[in-house]
Every structure is written in structure tokens, then in C-alpha cells.
Amino acid sequence: MCHFQDKDSRYTPRMHLVLFDIDGTLIKGGGMGGRALRQAFEEVFSVSAVENSDLDKVHFGGRTDPAIITDMATALNLQIEDPLHPTFVEAFLRHLRSNVDTTPELKTCPYIPELLQSLHHDPRVCLGLITGNMEPGARIKLDPFELNPFFPIGGFGEDGFERHLLVGAAIERGRNHYDIGFDPEEVVVIGDTQNDIKAGRAHGCLTVGVATGWVEEENLQQANGSAVFKDLSPENGFASWLNEQLS
């Protein structure tokens, strides 16, 4: 993955940083993140949260953990200064680990393991994450499928409330880790919501919407990204599209 050919080669590939969202893009979590947050609110703040219907109105898709936690606190009539307070984060991560073991719906999205193996061995590709999850939570979600080794860097929920801040953080970490000065047009942002596409576009990146989450293809297309696919399997055209961008 992500290495140049010998200097005597007549062709040096153009390197691209390919950033994947997690929930709805790499995996389907079966709602375990939301359950863990509710459980953490009950434990830390002694409020009724697990079965609280007011929390059903909080939108999760394409958002960051700090923004989601803040909205959940508001719905519970709580005032919190730091949505990532260590006590709350510790409780959330503990419950998230527990939910991994008790969520039978947890699975990878179509063709993801095969795709990552292929990209990992493509010398033109450097991989990373772009997710609203806090990094420890992201790693917990990916660990059951042994996907973490594919992603040495990323942009995470700790990097800001707004998703475009995560893209900037991921690009900077990618440049530092891989020692490659990726231009914006050499970065591909892949996600299952309009927010993923908008965040990538804000930095001038190539953007891919994938309808394996909770947003329909036609709604993803309205975000005016570079491409939209039903899923990331070869038969739906993603591999061909990406190969064109890498050429």
C-alpha cells in the first residue's frame, strides 16, 4: 500500500489518500453507538435515557460525537460544558465494548473486506478514516472485523463539531504519516450521507456517496458529489470509477 515504484521505473503512480466513513459505509452497527450513549447518560447523569423517546429525535447520520452528545444532553434537559468529558467518554466506551458483544446485527457493508484488501495492495492508494466517532470508539467498532490495521490515520470526532474539520485533520495526518503532500484533488472522501459529501467538497476533494447506510441514492446525488453508488462492490462500478481517478 502507498509506495512509489523504483526510481528507475518509467512511471511513478500518482498517490491518492482514500478516506472512509465508518457507520453505514464500512459497517452496519445495529444502533449500538446510540445505545451506548444512552447507557452512558443514565450512568453518569442518573437520568432516564435508555427508553427516553425524546432522544429518538436526535439525528446521528453524518454528524460528530460531540454534536450528537450535545443534542442528546439538550433533549434530556442537561447542561454540559464538555461533551467529551473524560468521565462520560469512559462510560460510553465501556458500554460500546459491551454492545459489540450483544449486537447480532453488527456486520460489514457489502464487499468491504475484499475492497480494503485490494486497496491495501494498490501502490497508488493510502488509506484513512473520516468519521464522527471518537477515535477509541471508531477502533472498537472496527475491531471485530480486524479492519483497524488498514487505517493508520484518520479524522475523528475529537477534531471538531463540524464534519469538514475532520476532513482537514485527516488530510493533514495523512500527509504527515505517509510523507506525501496530497493535493485536495488527490483525496477521496467516501461516506453514506450528504454531510460526508459536503465535508469533502468543502476541501476540494473527490467525494463518493454510497447508499449502504440510511440515505437513498437519489438523495445522495442531490449533494453534488463526484459519484454515487448503490454499494462499493465491483458490479456497481466503484472499482472502475476509482481506477479512473487513480490513473
From TrEMBL:
Origin superkingdom: Bacteria
GO biological process, one term: DNA repair
UniProt cross-references to InterPro entries, sorted A to Z: HAD-like_hydrolase_sf (IPR050155), HAD-like_sf (IPR036412), HAD_2 (IPR041492), HAD_sf (IPR023214), PGP-like_dom2 (IPR023198)
Membrane-spanning segments: none
Gene Ontology CC entries for this record: cytosol
Pfam family, any one: HAD_2
Lineage of the organism: Bacteria, Candidatus Eiseniibacteriota
Annotated keywords: Hydrolase
Gene3D superfamilies: HAD superfamily/HAD-like (3.40.50.1000), Putative phosphatase, domain 2 (1.10.150.240)
Sample GO molecular function, one term: phosphoglycolate phosphatase activity
Name of this chain's protein: HAD hydrolase-like protein
The UniProt record lists the keyword Transmembrane helix: no
